[in-house]
Amino acid sequence: MVSRVIPVDPFDLTIFGGTGDLATRKILPGLFRRHLSGQMPHEAQIIGAARSELSDEEYRDIVRAAIAEFGAIDHSDSDVDEFLSRVSYLHVDAKGSAGWAALKSKMRDGYVRAFYFSVAPALFGDLAERLHEHDIAQRDSRIVVEKPFGKDLETARALNATLAKHFREDQIYRIDHYLGKETVQNLMAVRFGNMLFEPLWNAQFIDHIQITVAETVGVGGRGGYYDQSGAMRDMVQNHLMQLLCLIAMEPPSKFDPDAVRDEKLKVIRALDPVEPHHLVRGQYSADGEQPDYRSAVDNPRSRTESFVALKTHISNWRWAGTPFYLRTGKRMRARSSEIAVVFKETPHSIFGPDAGSHRNALVIRLQPDEGITLDVTIKEPGPGGMRLVDVPLDMTFAEALGPDAETAPEAYERLIMDVIRGNQTLFMRGDEVEAAWSWTDPIIQGWEARNDVPKPYDSGSSGPEDALMLLHRDGRKWREIR
Ligand code: NAD
After folding, report:
1. What is the Cα–Cα distance from 405 to 130, expressed in whole angstroms?
2. Which of 22, 103, 176, 229 to mutate to test the pocket of ligand 1 (most atoms within 8 A of CB)?
3. φ and ψ at 434, to 5 degrees?
4. Ligand 1 center from residue 119 Cα (angstroms)
5. pLDDT at 397
6. Could you tell me which CATH class the domain 11-146 is placed in?
7. pLDDT single digits (tens) 134-165
8. Catalytic site residue 166?
9. Whose CA is closest to atom 4 on ligand 1?
10. pLDDT in tens, 301-359
11. What is the atom index within ligand 1 of the atom nearest the CA of 96?
12. Element (H, E) at 269
């Protein structure tokens, strides 16, 4: 099968924070890969804008090094040179006047204009204000904003209001890179492109759904930020809730940004509050050379969680009775993100008690090894009677798709191309983000009021024992993190 790369319209993309970690690790190497694929038109212009005083050449050296380290894919020096010929740099101060006139003079009429805010959220308002004040943003210009989008409902509302002073909602692209993953979109194709699953996609047939996002890394150099945030704000409020929405939403009438986002919003609004006994928080312990959470964030009394697990329900006709279990944590056994839709057992086993208990599970794996598998029960081959065994059926068909599967764009690059195309389907709308905070705020306020102290858990484990008990009490089991 031959990959179909459809070039986007020529654009001027300004990356504020163009020297930062995110820009050099993800955004610029991603754009380079789009260049290699032929999706980026020759007239495209990429402007790095940040606080450092750098010449174009010095900046190109930074980008060259970033591509060498993070660009992956095979390429030649001339590929890099060609890409770099579209890259320039400006020293711009979000809080002052430096660089804005120069940025305006670089803008070309008739090209898509996009501005990526890859800077601290405290600067989002300043950037929006400056782009307006210097008459750089036009009616159809787009801005891309990174997470975190606020730290609670109040701050998210304030941020939405600040951006809304200068940009309409259809110009604002709130990025959640989980939505850009190939498998997440494949999940929608599997759900809404097949007759097979949708009739079974409800509480009558689905026993429970579990969503796990496990990391092996600790807080690293982000300790200061992380200790103010924690797993609930950093992961659940955005990534895990977005995944939950895509799994649980009703079929939208069409694959169109507002139709999809309206359905996701309904899911968030139907989420039950989380009971305190359905919530487990943890902090990782020291492991050999690696410090424990409190030492890593340099706060010996920290009550911030590096792990959270919870059980919730969605109060609507489709899902009443099917629990949703969510968990995420740092320093876990393996780096693994997956959603498991676990179906109920057959109502009666004709194979007798020796056949054991078997359940179909649709597993959507986001990392590593993106893919979708369906666990089906079959007869164990060979003599010896009717013994049943569960085997995974690969629904990703990487082999059938051939090299396409390998050259599929990574999340960031796909999302940036969507920005240029003006397609907001995979971006969060302002009301969605606010609704997500409305659900998480009372959970956080609850444990703050109770002075809840997170439970310690071993690094390299599956989290605190209580998290295992959360499912065990219901006669269920987490899938192994591997
Ligand atoms: P960083 O600290 O590495 O880079 C910050 C950038 O902002 C630098 O280029 C700096 O020059 C620029 N900057 C700072 N003050 C400025 C000013 N007054 N005017 C103009 N530019 C200024 O940060 P980062 O890790 O790249 O993160 C950027 C954004 O992306 C943040 O909102 C962060 O929360 C978000 N984010 C980062 C990651 C990641 O993996 N790094 C992941 C998700 C979200």
Report:
1. 41
2. 22
3. -65, -40
4. 3
5. 67
6. alpha beta
7. 999 999 999 999 999 999 999 999 999 999 99
8. no
9. 20
10. 999 999 999 999 999 999 999 999 999 999 999 999 999 999 999 999 999 888 888 99
11. 18
12. helix 257-269
DSSP 8-state secondary structure symbol assigned to residue 26? I
Average pLDDT over residues 295-300: 96
pTM for this structure? Answer: 0.95
Q: Where are the domains of the chain?
A: 11-146, 179-472
Alpha-carbon span 293 to 415, nearest angstrom: 33
CB proximity list for 439: less than 8 A, separation 6 or greater:
241, 268, 271, 273
Measured in Å, residue 168 CA sits from the centre of ligand 1 at 24
| Structure tokens that stand for 139 in this block | 């009616």
- Show the ligand 1 pocket: residues with CB < 6 angstroms: 16-23, 50-52, 92-95, 118-121, 123, 146-148
pLDDT tens digits, one per residue of 459-481: 999 999 999 999 999 999 999 99
Number of C-alpha atoms within 13 angstroms, CB side, residue 456? 8
Cis, bond preceding 148 (omega within 30 deg of 0): yes
CATH of 179-472, one of 3.90.950.20, 3.40.50.720, 3.30.360.10, 3.40.50.1240: 3.30.360.10
The alpha carbon of 432 and the centre of ligand 1 are apart by a number of angstroms equal to 24
Q: Which one of the listed residues 35, 166, 208, 239 is annotated catalytic?
A: 239
* Ligand 1 atom closest to 19 (CA): 9
**Residue 399 CB neighbour total at 10 angstroms:** 8
For residue 118, report the distance from its CA to the centre of ligand 1, in Å: 5
Token pair 């996609």 is found at 201
CA nearest 317: which of 202, 207, 191, 196? 202
The answer, yes or no, to whether residue 1 has pLDDT greater than 70, is no
User: 28 near 67, Cβ under 8 Å?
Assistant: yes
| Residue 375 reports pLDDT greater than 80 | yes
CA distance linking residue 2 with residue 444, whole number of Å: 49
The first and second tokens of residue 309, run together, are: 């697990």
Q: Whose CA is nearest to atom 7 of ligand 1?
A: 17
CA-based R_g, the chain, Å: 24
Q: Which atom of ligand 1 is nearest to the CA of 16?
A: 21
